Amino acid sequence: MFHLFRSSAVFVFLGLTSAAVIRAPLEKRDQCQSTLNTATKVAHSFVDHYFNSGTGGFNGGSLWTDANAMEDLGNLMLATGSSDFGYMQDISTIGKLALDPNTNWPNVVAGSNDDAGWIVLALWKIADYKGARGGNPQPYLNAAQQLYSYIAGQWDGICGGGG
C-alpha cells in the first residue's frame, strides 16, 4: 500500500512540477560560442558531403534520418541566428512534401509511425525557423498536423496505444 501511495505522490509531484514548467515564460539562454562555432563547421562539412540538392535528401540516408538532420540544422540556425542552411528547407524531400497540400502522408510513411514522428518534429522545427525569420510557417504546420493526425488515428488500446 505504501508503494502505491508513494508512486502516486511522485506522479502528482511530477505533474505539478511539469505544469509549473510549462507555464514559465521562455527565455533565451546563453550559448557557448565555441561550441556553436564547432557545430556550424561540422554541419557545413556534413551538408557539403551528404546533401543532394537534386533529390532533396542526404546521400545514404532515409526519410527519418533526413528528418533528424533537418531538425538539427534548424536548431543550429535558431541558436546561431544564421540562415546557412535555410535554403535546404524548401528543396528538401520533407520540404517539398510539406509544400504540396495534396501530399498523401500515409503513403509517404507507409505505416512507419516512428519515422512519421521524426518527420513531424522536423516540420515543426522548419516552421519555427520560418516564423523566426519572417517566413510563412503555415505549410509546415499544416503538414505536421496532417501527419500527426494520421499517427494519432493509429493509436489503439494495446500497450498504451502503441499496439
What does it look like?
- With 163 residues, the chain is mainly alpha-helical.
- It has one domain.
- The protein is 68% helix and 2% strand.
- A hairpin with a 4-residue loop joins strand 1 and strand 2.
- Helix 5 packs across helix 8.
- The longest helix is centred in the N-terminal third of the chain and has 22 residues.
- It starts with a helix and ends in a 10-residue tail after the last helix.
- The relative contact order is 0.09.
Give the CA-based shape.
globular
Supply the number of helical segments. Answer: 8
First-last Cα distance: 30 Å
The helix-and-strand class reads mainly alpha
Mean of residue pLDDT values? 86
Side by side, the strands of the main sheet go: 1-2
Strand content: under 5%
Largest sheet: 2 strands, antiparallel
How many domain modules?
1
Order of helices and strands: HHEEHHHHHH
Radius of gyration, taken over Cα atoms and rounded to an integer in Å: 19 Å
Helix content, binned percent: 55-70%
Number of strands: 2
The poorly predicted ranges are: 1-22
